[in-house]
Amino acid sequence: MSERDRFRLDGKTALITGAGSGLGRQFAMTLATAGATVVLAARRAEKLEETRSLVAKAGGEALCVSLDVTDGASVQQCFTELDDAGQSIDILVNNAGISRTGFLAELSEADWDAVVDTNLKGVFLVAQATARRMLERGRGGSIINIASILGFRVSKTLGSYVAAKSGVVNLTKTMALEWARFGIRVNAIAPGYFETEINTGFLSSPAGQTMLQQVPLRRSGVLSELDGPLLLLASEAGSYMTGSTITVDGGHLCSSL
Ligand SMILES: NC(=O)c1ccc[n+]([C@@H]2O[C@H](COP(=O)([O-])OP(=O)(O)OC[C@H]3O[C@@H](n4cnc5c(N)ncnc54)[C@H](OP(=O)(O)O)[C@@H]3O)[C@@H](O)[C@H]2O)c1
């Protein structure tokens, strides 16, 4: 296999949660372009359909499935549908996520639960359902959890998100440890700031512009700048990587204190 072929994903099936917008849509396009069949999962059917049509226009193959990652019954239903359709997952991108801002003294239990259930419990539920099938099939696989630089550093008003994303970083390592002997690699990507629905308006606001001045590369990321790290972790090119978190943040985490 040539070095270039090691990044190809022909014959593989990849499940991407939160694939109807932002990073998830980009991940779906990237994996499909590398040859994978992509399964697009989230709650808003119309957004998934938009992604499916973009993948199809680019010559890729995609199908949509309804999924609420916070709800165990919805996760089971989604996997039952995939089992019934004969789809087995080789690559999982656990990307669904939300954020809610609020100082901890004022944060409601509902907002805490929404953020932690989506960003942390959701990663567990979907990875568990995927890994169970990978274990049964015995062909290994690659799981990629989307963390954040807020899994390593903290920010006022984002306490629930920080707690969830730092949980994702160590959950990734624990999954890697438990499943390595079965050929299942588990890694994470920790993005810095990329303009999407999750931070609409923030990056162009005065506070967002000030924040970007602290990024060594002095700008937010462009979604395609996540393609390389994603393909590395998803493909044979990353065959000796498990338990790692790759930071893609323009140097934000190593900014001067
Ligand atoms: N953008 C950034 O700067 C940045 C930085 C670091 C990390 N991240 C992480 O990157 C991931 C993607 O975020 P994004 O920036 O692309 O934001 P986004 O455009 O808002 O995408 C998040 C996606 O998650 C889906 N989602 C939310 N709750 C869900 C649920 N309960 N079940 C299933 N799907 C759900 C949403 O689809 P539905 O509403 O249709 O379900 C949405 O398409 C998140 O984990 C986020 O924390 C983003």
Provide a descriptive summary of the structure in words.
- This protein is an alpha/beta fold.
- It has a single domain, classed as 3-Layer(aba) Sandwich (Rossmann fold), CATH 3.40.50.
- It contains seven helices and seven strands; from the N terminus they run E-H-E-H-E-H-E-H-E-H-E-H-H-E.
- The chain has helices at 22-33, 45-57, 72-84, 109-137, 159-179, 206-213, 227-234; strands spanning 13-17, 37-42, 61-66, 91-94, 141-146, 184-191, 245-248.
- A seven-stranded parallel β-sheet has the order 3-2-1-4-5-6-7, with helices on both faces.
- Helix 4 (109-137) runs parallel beside helix 5 (159-179).
- The radius of gyration is 18 Å and the shape is globular.
- The structure holds NADP nicotinamide-adenine-dinucleotide phosphate (NAP).
- The site of NADP nicotinamide-adenine-dinucleotide phosphate (NAP) has 30 residues, from helix 1 and helix 4.
- One of its GO terms (molecular function) is oxidoreductase activity, acting on the CH-OH group of donors, NAD or NADP as acceptor.
- InterPro entries: KR_dom (IPR057326), NAD(P)-bd_dom_sf (IPR036291), Sc_DH/Rdtase_CS (IPR020904), SDR_fam (IPR002347).
